[in-house]
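for the record, two folds in this file. i put them one after another cuz i was lazy. first one right below, seq on top, C-alpha cells after. the second one comes after a little note so u can tell where it starts
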Amino acid sequence: MCQLSGIDEDNLSNFLHEIEAVKVGDIEEITNLLIDLQNLNEEAKMTHGPNVLRGLKDQMDSDMISILRKSKNVKAKLEALDKSNVANLNY
C-alpha cells in the first residue's frame, strides 16, 4: 500500500466530505421530491374533481421544476469536484 502525504490526506478528506455533502443534502431532497411526486400521481389517479386535479397538477409541475433545478445543481457540483480532482492529480 502506498502512503499518502499530509496534503494528499487533507485533499482526499475534503473531497470525500464534499461528496457526502452532495449525497446527504441535495440527493436526499431530490429523493423526497420524487416520493412526493409519486404520491401526488397516485392521488391524481383516484381524484375526479377538476379543481382538485388542477391543484394536484400544479403541485406536480412545481415538484418537477424543483427536481430539475436540484439535479442541475448536483450535476454542476459533481462536475466541479471532478475538475478539482483532475487538477489535484496533475499537481
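(here's the note) second protein begins now
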Amino acid sequence: MGISHGLAFAASFHEMNFDCGLATGSLLSANVGSLPIVDGEIEVKRIEPNFEGIEVSPERYKWWQDRLMKTWELIA
C-alpha cells in the first residue's frame, strides 16, 4: 500500500536524478497489492489490498501491534 503513495510522490517531480527506493516490497515473502513493473516502470494508481493467504499467529500479530504502538509513541 505504501508504494502507491511513494510512487505518486516520485511521479510528481518534473525531473528525477536519483533513485527513489520504490518496489523494495518485492524483497518480502508476500505482497498485499499488485503493481507490476513493466520495462522498469510502474503505473501510478491506487490499489486495493488483498490479504488472502497472509495469516500470522496471534503472538506475531501482537508483536507487530506492540511495535507499531511503541514507534507511534516515539514520533508523536
